[in-house]
């Protein structure tokens, strides 16, 4: 694999080819990755995957016209032709008054920030097979598990470089390791499936395969013999497995593009209460070993921690340079992009800070509630905030988690849900987006 310096130099060479072709501005990205994975089912190898990928992307501007092209070739000899093709495309594109690179005055180099994202350890296929096998065996050993969808383990490394005609040229190397298991519990006519997964930057931070496997088995067995409940209005608790999905809806509503298009249910919410007093939602791109950590964004702007929600108040939109120009604000350092695409705003390591009450206290906050552990479908209107999704989970009575419930629908409006929800104190930072158990005091629950 290329070094970071080589990748950054390669991207800078492509930018130089673009300016020689006549571009008034350009940026380029280089992406290189390799990964290995193995899946085991019932003790036998089901699938082995080994992949390496190379991608080069060029975004070229001719005034306010732009075009984006990509290739899989890392050969510098191919760069002039790629640049000329992009230039010809840009000349035919319509003008966009908001197009352009980030303001050079805002660019930062991100140097001196060590986020510790790269683990040189690369487990071989024999090690991955052993991990996947242990995960599946632990899941199948749980009483009540009757079949398996398999256990899997994987590892990989990636390198992404960005260069711009304004002088930015940097690269970021990272690694990932993962382990998962999925099993079936029960007999014909009453089967239930569930899974468990864990991912980490470093192999040493990855949960033991046996722990992941047992969690998958326990989850599947707990879903057996679901009961039907009466439809009505009641409190709903979102387990940490699904609670971050509410943050996903929130953050989609505060991206600059959604605000500029006026397609957000939070259109006029800046500097107003969106969550309850005391709630904080933080984006932290500088978390050491974070799954979405980065020192610079997809336009070369420096990344900094930001409380998007402070004491319940919405403090900022998420804006790349184009949407920031539309809104008349500064870009916020949240531009993300695929190698062959244009920037768009999005969070890094996003999480809601824990609340004061424990999960057990929230479970006991009402005589009867639903604890949701799985969400199904995409029934969310981003313009109105209307929310209606299929769900499964457990009935909670007098603070005790009882029988499973399945084939239910939970409904409400995201504005009301966000404004009234309460976070528990059980936050764990396991993903790129995390939240503790969340209690929404009132939602409509319907049985299928």
Automatic annotation (TrEMBL):
<dbReference type="InterPro" id="IPR045570">
    <property type="entry name" value="Metalloprtase-TldD/E_cen_dom"/>
</dbReference>
<dbReference type="InterPro" id="IPR035068">
    <property type="entry name" value="TldD/PmbA_N"/>
</dbReference>
<dbReference type="Pfam" id="PF01523">
    <property type="entry name" value="PmbA_TldD_1st"/>
</dbReference>
<dbReference type="InterPro" id="IPR036059">
    <property type="entry name" value="TldD/PmbA_sf"/>
</dbReference>
<dbReference type="InterPro" id="IPR047657">
    <property type="entry name" value="PmbA"/>
</dbReference>
<protein>
    <submittedName>
        <fullName>TldD/PmbA family protein</fullName>
    </submittedName>
</protein>
<feature type="domain" description="Metalloprotease TldD/E C-terminal">
    <location>
        <begin position="231"/>
        <end position="446"/>
    </location>
</feature>
<dbReference type="Pfam" id="PF19289">
    <property type="entry name" value="PmbA_TldD_3rd"/>
</dbReference>
<dbReference type="InterPro" id="IPR002510">
    <property type="entry name" value="Metalloprtase-TldD/E_N"/>
</dbReference>
<comment type="similarity">
    <text>Belongs to the peptidase U62 family.</text>
</comment>
<feature type="domain" description="Metalloprotease TldD/E central">
    <location>
        <begin position="119"/>
        <end position="224"/>
    </location>
</feature>
<feature type="domain" description="Metalloprotease TldD/E N-terminal">
    <location>
        <begin position="26"/>
        <end position="90"/>
    </location>
</feature>
<dbReference type="Pfam" id="PF19290">
    <property type="entry name" value="PmbA_TldD_2nd"/>
</dbReference>
<dbReference type="InterPro" id="IPR045569">
    <property type="entry name" value="Metalloprtase-TldD/E_C"/>
</dbReference>
């Amino acid at each position: 694999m290329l070094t970071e310096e080589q990748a950054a130099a390669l991207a800078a060479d492509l930018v130089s080819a673009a300016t020689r072709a006549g571009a008034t501005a350009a940026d380029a990205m280089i992406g290189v990755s390799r990964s290995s994975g193995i899946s085991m089912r019932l003790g036998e190898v089901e699938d082995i995957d080994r992949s390496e990928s190379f991608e080069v992307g060029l975004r070229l501007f001719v005034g306010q016209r732009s075009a984006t092209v990509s290739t899989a070739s890392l050969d510098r000899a191919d760069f002039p032709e790629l640049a000329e093709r992009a230039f010809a495309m840009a000349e035919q594109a319509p003008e966009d008054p908001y197009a352009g690179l980030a303001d050079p005055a805002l660019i930062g180099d991100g140097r001196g920030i060590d986020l510790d994202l790269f683990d040189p350890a690369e487990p071989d296929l024999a090690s991955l097979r052993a991990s996947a096998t242990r995960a599946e065996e632990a899941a199948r050993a749980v009483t009540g598990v009757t079949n398996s969808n398999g256990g899997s383990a994987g590892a990989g490394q990636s390198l992404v470089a960005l260069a711009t005609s304004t002088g930015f040229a940097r690269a970021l190397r990272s690694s990932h390791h993962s382990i998962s298991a999925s099993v079936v519990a029960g007999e014909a006519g009453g089967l239930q499936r569930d899974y468990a997964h864990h991912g980490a930057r470093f192999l040493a931070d990855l949960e033991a395969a046996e722990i992941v496997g047992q969690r998958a088995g326990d989850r599947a067995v707990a879903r057996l013999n679901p009961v039907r409940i009466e439809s009505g209005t009641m409190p709903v608790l979102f387990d940490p497995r699904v609670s971050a999905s509410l943050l996903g809806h929130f953050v989609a509503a505060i991206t600059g593009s959604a605000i500029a298009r006026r397609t957000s249910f939070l259109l006029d919410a800046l500097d107003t209460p969106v969550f309850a007093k005391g709630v904080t939602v933080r984006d932290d791109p500088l978390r050491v070993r974070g799954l979405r950590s980065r020192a610079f964004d997809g336009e070369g702007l420096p990344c900094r921690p930001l409380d998007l929600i402070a004491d319940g108040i919405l403090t900022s939109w998420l804006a790349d340079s184009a949407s920031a120009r539309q809104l008349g604000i500064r870009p916020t350092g949240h531009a993300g992009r695929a190698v062959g695409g244009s920037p768009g705003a999005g969070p890094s390591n996003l999480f809601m800070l824990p609340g004061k009450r424990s999960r057990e206290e929230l479970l006991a906050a009402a005589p009867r509630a639903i604890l949701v552990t799985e969400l199904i479908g995409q029934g969310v209107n981003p313009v109105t905030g209307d929310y209606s999704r299929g769900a499964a989970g457990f009935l909670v009575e007098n603070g005790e988690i009882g029988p499973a419930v399945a084939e239910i629908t939970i409904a409400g409006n995201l504005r009301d849900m966000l404004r009234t929800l309460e976070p528990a104190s059980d936050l764990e930072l396991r993903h790129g987006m995390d939240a503790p158990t969340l209690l929404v005091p009132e939602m409509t629950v319907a049985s299928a």
